[in-house]
Amino acid sequence: MQYSPISSKETLYAMALTRMNYFNLTALRGLYEAAGNATAIMENRRNIRDILPDASPRLVEQLLRMDEPLRRAEAEMEYDAAHGITPLTISDNRYPQRLRECDDAPLVLFYKGNGDLNQQRTISIVGTRHCTSYGQDLVRRFITGLHQLCPRVLVVSGLAYGVDINAHRQALAQGYETVGVLAHGLDDLYPPRHRQTADEMVENGGLLTEYFTMTQPDKVNFVRRNRIVAGMCDASILVESAAKGGGLITMRIAREYNRDTFAFPGAVGAPYSEGCNSLIRDNGAQLITSAQDFVDAMGWNDDATLMQAKKQGIERQIFPQLSAEEQMVVNCLREQNDQQINMLTVKTNLPIARLSSMLFELEMKGVVRNMAGGTYHLMM
């Protein structure tokens, strides 16, 4: 499916639908996929069974009472337009493509910032709110080392006390874009003492939430937002955690989404290393002690190789000899990088079996790389 700019009407309707069925995300996503878009649902809401014959009586009833959700969505759109907030529907090409793969992804996200949510490399760093000096040092050394190996990575966390805020601040210090996923609307900030860092992030990354304005940071919201932290990233890294905590919830969700999970070990008996040590022991996360460990495990060494080549004045100027069909695939990726195979088969008019074999050959030649979410990235 090709994503294009989304109309204000589609955005309004998607926002209204989230108000209608706010706490049944998977069902709402299923409804959206079955109808094709929010506009189709809303324009047929009085006769929804014409396009969805299996619509439940509860859904039929809810769709007949959409006046209040529509009013709330209209008010939200006005506020967002006046305050630099961008609503991203799930069909928007700016919406995090990795998160889009998840069944319980929200139909709409609200974003304030300038960062690319679909960077080639995206990680989350999570952990306890009671970060020790050991944890702070781990975050600093990891992000510093990662930047030396991979100069372009989006760092995601939750802007909470402890590990989260340290991750954001170290990312900013290294020149990384960093995004905070919030458990409330973008009309406020919790905790308020992180306002200065949040303002810096808006200029070098951004703030992201699924919640409308005037939504309070209730406890359940923090748990729900963890799936966004996990779902929009290639990998999640646990720095410090007690035996129970939000970081462990994020790691569990990441595994359910088939994302890579990593944890730093700590001293036996240390309260805020118990969660990490248990996770590693139970094979819930790979043990890492450095950025190099992480890069090796993820297979991201090509970034380090290219950096070294550039330092030596060597540039990749030309690809290996390509067939006409291979060149056609390369040209498609040059026009728009990071595409899934279903889009490439439409653009090249090549059978999907042939294209799959060709992409494998291109990967062996070092021309493309198969990235998270089944997208193909042109290596140049």
Distance between the termini: 25 Å
Largest sheet data: 9 strands, mixed
Strand content: 5-15%
Give the integer mean of the pLDDT values: 89
In spatial order, strands of the major sheet run 1-2-6-5-4-3-7-8-9
Low-confidence stretches: 1-5, 309-318
Radius of gyration: 22 Å
- Given the C-alpha coordinates, what overall shape results? globular
The total count of helices amounts to 17
Order of helices and strands: HHHHHEHEEHEHEHEHEHEHEHHHEHHEE
Number of strands: 12
Structural class: alpha/beta
Helix content: 40-55%
Summarize this structure as a short list of keywords or feature phrases:
single chain; alpha/beta; 9-stranded mixed beta sheet
Describe this structure in words.
- The protein has 380 residues and is an alpha/beta fold.
- Helices cover 47% and strands 12% of the residues.
- It has a 9-stranded mixed sheet, sandwiched between helices. A 3-stranded antiparallel sheet has the order 10-12-11.
- Helix 9 links the parallel strand 5 and strand 6.
- Helix 7 (133-149) packs parallel to helix 8 and helix 10 crosses helix 11 (246-256).
Q: How is this fold's topology laid out?
A:
Elements (H helix, E strand, L loop, with lengths): L7 H13 L4 H11 L2 H6 L13 H7 L3 H16 L3 E4 L7 H4 L7 E6 L8 E5 L6 H17 L4 E4 L5 H11 L4 E4 L13 H9 L1 E5 L9 H13 L3 E4 L7 H11 L3 E4 L10 H8 L4 E2 L3 H8 L2 H11 L12 H12 L3 E2 H8 L3 H13 L3 E3 L4 E4 L2
Parallel strand pairs: 3-4, 3-7, 4-5, 5-6, 7-8, 8-9
Antiparallel strand pairs: 1-2, 2-6, 10-12, 11-12
